[in-house]
Design goal:
The chain is an alpha+beta fold. About 40% of the residues lie in helices and about 20% in strands. The strands form three sheets. It has a six-stranded mixed sheet, sandwiched between helices. Strands 10-11-9-12 form a four-stranded antiparallel sheet. The protein has a three-stranded antiparallel sheet with strand order 2-7-8, with helices on both faces. A hairpin with a 5-residue loop joins strand 7 and strand 8. Helix 3 packs across helix 4, helix 6 crosses helix 8 and helix 10 packs across helix 11. It is globular and about 70 Å long. The mean pLDDT is about 95.
């Protein structure tokens, strides 16, 4: 890939690239819709991601090119920038702006990006570009900034420059990922630990529903509000700062305080999903991959029935996975209403699984999914 991108770089800029970098995308293995309720998430970096080949120039111009998009930009170096339009190059431009705000001195750059992450599938292509760009600037200009601080910088770009009110999980996972490791992350405190993700005869499979996630943002805000209402009612009987501070017994003893079937379902998902994350931590630490698969199925059932954020497309993927002998676990991952599901499938049955799932899904939904095998890999890095 590095050689091929070097060739493309020469075609675009008529010179050799000085540096090459890669930043992965991410999936969340379990712990969905609990980050804003005080729980922990379990993301990992994947083998798909974004590549960057780059050289300095003396023209004081940032020349942005991407093999995935037709839009190009030549932007002169100035003291600050603001977002214009919806073009892809606003993401690296926002990172450059953040470095300039911090007082770092930059020069012009010729940059070429290429990503093999499906855009808009919920695998964090935007966080991948942000962290990748920041890591490249750190390396090229000798800037002293940790990967953890790069993740926080990427979140600021997403929130303040791009205008999307997202959390820290995506940037953290792609900046801090480790091969064969899941990250158990507290999104509030940024406390984290690495867990072994040794899956033996099974591989992580990512299934892109190819359904656009049009509802995700509005429903996300709706669920956020519902959880707040449920917590307020439960606080009449329990002392808890957030829903994830409530265990199953506390919830069962006080659920009558909610007196609203919808809010009750939302709260029950959060409480039970938080406990599934704890169970998953135990299972992975003990090498019990089949137990982890069971928890994946249970997580999806809860997201489908209690939190109501899955949808026909994601449910169809999980439905097929349950019927397939070589699959031990599957669930939607991300905000829901489209995007991706993940599954644990026997390595030597991947091609069979992908073919049969594609046929089953296409018959039910009317178009094909994308099915990818993925390793759990390291976070952002320079390619030597």
């Amino acid at each position: 890939m590095k050689e091929e991108l070097g060739k493309k770089f020469r075609e675009h800029f008529g010179k050799e690239p000085e540096f090459s970098f890669f930043c992965p995308g991410r999936v969340n293995l379990i712990g969905e819709h609990i980050d804003y309720n005080g729980g922990k998430v379990m993301p990992c970096a994947i083998s798909l991601g974004t590549y960057l080949v780059i050289s300095r120039n003396t023209d004081k111009v940032f020349r942005f090119r991407c093999l995935n998009f037709p839009e190009t930009a030549n932007i002169h170096l100035q003291s600050s920038y603001s977002k214009t339009g919806k073009e892809w190059f606003n993401y690296p431009l926002g990172v450059i702006n953040e470095f300039l705000k911090e007082g770092y001195t930059l020069s012009g750059l010729d940059v070429l990006y290429y990503g093999n992450l499906p855009i808009g599938a919920g695998l964090s292509s935007s966080a991948s570009i942000e962290v990748l760009t920041a890591y490249a600037l750190k390396t090229i200009f000798g800037i002293d900034i940790s990967n953890k601080d790069i993740a926080l910088l990427g979140k600021r770009v997403e929130n303040e420059f791009i205008g999307v009110n997202s959390g820290i999980m995506d940037q953290f996972a792609v900046a801090m990922g480790k091969e064969h490791k899941a990250i158990l992350l507290n999104c509030d405190t940024l406390e984290y630990e690495y867990l072994p993700f040794e899956t033996g005869d099974y591989i992580l499979v990512i299934i892109n529903s190819n359904k656009q996630r049009a509802l995700a943002d509005s429903k996300y805000n709706e669920r956020f509000a519902e959880c707040g209402k449920a917590l307020k009612l439960l606080k009449k009987g329990v002392h808890a700062e957030n829903l994830c501070a409530i265990d199953t017994n506390m919830f069962e003893n006080n659920r009558s305080l909610i007196n609203d079937p919808v809010l009750e379902k939302r709260a029950l998902h959060v409480v039970s999903e938080n406990e599934r994350v704890k169970e998953s931590q135990k299972a992975l630490s003990a090498g019990q991959v089949k137990r982890f698969g069971e928890l994946m199925y249970a997580s999806h059932q809860s997201l489908q029935d209690l939190y109501e954020v899955s949808g026909k497309e994601l449910d169809t993927i999980v439905e097929f996975s349950k019927m397939y002998d070589g699959c031990i676990g599957a669930r939607m991952t991300g905000a829901g209403f489209g995007g991706c599901a993940i599954a644990l499938v026997k390595k030597d049955q991947f091609d069979d699984f992908a073919g049969k799932l594609t046929t089953y899904y296409t018959q039910k939904i009317g178009y094909a999914p994308g099915v990818f095998a993925s390793a759990i890999g390291d976070g952002v890095r320079e390619l030597n």
